[in-house]
Design goal:
Rossmann fold; three-stranded mixed beta sheet; 12 helices; binds nicotinamide-adenine-dinucleotide; binds UDP-4-deoxy-4-formamido-beta-L-arabinopyranose
Length: 351
């Protein structure tokens, strides 16, 4: 059994599908602080298999320990955490508590339960302002905001853990910019309030929920003046987790970029979205967003060599799948009916 923290969230729901499709049993632990368990109902519909859901907080070490023991867990994929860069500057302590302390509690529960295989969701944000491009895993780590620093500290903590005990098998995944949705249109990103990220904002403009996209700067030193990012299809990203789990059959530690290796500008994204959706996406140029960099994209060579993994889906497919999700679910998961989970049959207590 694989324990997936944060499995009801955007990336977690897609990782749940990848694991289930690979025939693995999954127990999702999520406190639903930024998600809706309807996502897991949809995951089960997509896969035609049940998964176990436990409503629990990773900061609750006893609850996590009990779940690790109850389900005979062999490995943990750890996605639970707060992720909003701007919010992390407003309430940094909440980020350190939830992300850093939460991971410490999780690792402590795993140690007690003798579960020593862990895959951790880090972020390209740990690199900070690029000193060179494309970014390889050896690039210096200089995160520029509290959220990024929580990821950096967790990475360092996990390295120390592996150095102290060679039984640990740890995979650190530095995601670039995950976008898109499962091709069914049943699961996808469901941001609360005004989206922070580009693709959900563009999709809400295309569906008529917002008037226009404000492009944060058109005076960067890039071909069209707008920012360049490494957008990666969330399904490709989810598949990367399977490759890492496979790799961790051998002991040790692995830190790897999950990106496509190519960058696309904000304007390219908007034009591609318009082309695949057939909708117009009005925009206007505004000031640069503080903390943004001109360009950021991965060198994905190590992932290919070490894991045999590479992304496959194009920007057009990312936009088309994102649009299918947005147009079929204009209000996200809100309004969907709750599910009867296997958990109710198992009579396990809520965490
Ligand atoms: P998300 O908010 O959709 O998912 C995170 C999930 O974790 C949510 O379901 C939330 O309810 C849950 N959660 C949060 N704190 C918890 C806690 N203490 N206990 C139990 N559950 C908790 O975010 P996402 O986009 O799916 O991101 C998943 C992971 O990937 C995060 O760790 C994030 O930092 C990382 N990441 C995301 C991106 C991105 O752009 N989406 C990029 C790089 C890294
Ligand atoms: C992409 C581009 C913006 C919104 C963030 C986090 C990073 C990681 C991924 C978690 C930039 C521009 C955006 C808008 C715009 N998350 N933009 N108008 O900033 O590259 O990365 O998400 O780990 O840590 O920082 O992604 O989608 O916010 O922005 O012009 O309304 O779109 O300026 O050039 P970013 P993003």
């Amino acid at each position: 059994m694989i324990l997936l923290t944060g499995g009801a969230g955007y990336i977690g729901s897609h990782v749940s599908v990848a694991l289930s499709d690979a025939g693995l049993d999954v127990v999702v632990v999520d406190n639903l602080s930024n998600s809706n368990k309807a996502s897991l109902e949809r995951v089960q519909t997509i896969c035609g298999r049940s998964l176990v859901f436990r409503h629990a907080d990773i900061c609750n070490e006893e609850a996590v320990y009990e779940i690790l023991r109850a389900y005979d867990v062999s490995a943990v994929i750890h996605l639970a955490g707060f992720k909003a860069v701007g919010d992390s500057s407003v309430r940094p302590m909440a980020y350190y508590e939830n992300n850093v302390v939460g991971t410490m509690r999780l690792v402590s529960a795993m140690t007690r339960a003798s579960v020593k295989t862990l895959v951790f969701s880090s972020s390209a944000t740990v690199y900070g302002c690029p000193e060179y491009l494309p970014l390889d895993e050896k690039h210096p780590l200089k995160p520029t905001n509290p959220y990024g620093r929580t990821k950096f500290f967790i990475e360092e903590m996990l390295k120390d853990l592996c150095n102290s005990d060679p039984c640990w098998r740890v995979g650190i995944l530095r995601y670039f910019n995950p976008v898109g949705a499962h091709e069914s249109g049943l699961i996808g990103e469901d941001p609360v309030g005004i989206p922070n990220n580009l693709l959900p904002f563009v999709a809400q403009v295309a569906v008529g929920k917002r008037d226009k996209v404000l492009i944060f700067g058109n005076d960067y030193d890039t071909a069209d003046g707008t920012g360049i990012r490494d957008f990666i299809h969330v399904v490709d990203l989810a598949c990367g987790h399977l490759s890492v789990l496979n790799h961790l059959k051998q002991p040790g530690m692995l830190t790897v970029n999950l990106g496509t290796g190519s960058g696309n500008s904000v304007l390219e994204v908007i034009r591609t979205f318009e082309a695949v959706s057939g909708r117009s996406v009005p925009y206007e140029f505004g000031e640069r967003r503080p903390g943004d960099v001109a360009a950021c994209y991965a060198n994905p060579t190590f992932a290919r060599k070490a894991l045999g993994w590479k992304s496959r889906r194009s920007l057009a497919q990312m936009c088309a799948d994102h649009w299918r999700w947005q147009s079929q679910n204009p209000d996200g998961y809100r309004g969907t009916q709750p599910l009867q989970y296997r958990v109710s049959k198992l009579k396990v207590r809520a965490g």
